[in-house]
Amino acid sequence: MVAAKKKSINADIVINRTWCKGCGICIAFCPKEALFMDNSGKAEKVTEKCTACGVCETFCPDFAIALVKRRLYDNAGDKTGPDARQ
Questions:
Q1: Is 42 exposed, middle or buried (0-12, 13-18, 19+ CB in 10 A)?
Q2: How much is the pTM?
Q3: In angstroms, rounded to a whole number, what is the distance separating the alpha carbons of residues 23 and 64?
Q4: The CATH number of domain 11-69, selected from 3.40.50.10610, 3.30.930.10, 3.30.70.20, 3.30.70.360
Q5: Gyration radius of the chain over CA positions
Q6: Among candidates 68, 58, 82, 70, which has minimal Cα distance to 8?
Q7: Which residues are within 8 A (CB) of 16 and not within 5 positions of it... i.e. 6 or more apart?
Q8: How far apart are CA 84 and CA 76, in angstroms?
Q9: What is the 3-state secondary structure (H, E, C) of 19-74?
Q10: Which of 12, 20, 39, 64 has the fewest CB atoms inside 10 Å of its own CB, making it the most exposed?
């Protein structure tokens, strides 16, 4: 049996707690059940379950959820690569 490789996620879900009104729409539509309502009635994510698919961002009526893509560097820490800022 071949072990399945864990796919690297190149994005992250960010929840703006100031804008979240606790409607629960994002929780209802999350296909991985990675969102829940915390004690203050705001949406919160379970990092281990979240695949950053962006469904919650699409359905959030208050624009409180954003899918933020991570930048990948081939030469991490090297100031000579194409993304070097001098």
A1: middle
A2: 0.70
A3: 11
A4: 3.30.70.20
A5: 17
A6: 70
A7: 63, 64, 65, 66
A8: 10
A9: CCCCCCHHHHHCCCCCEEECCCCCEEECCCCCCCCCHHHHHCCCCCEEEEECCCCC
A10: 39
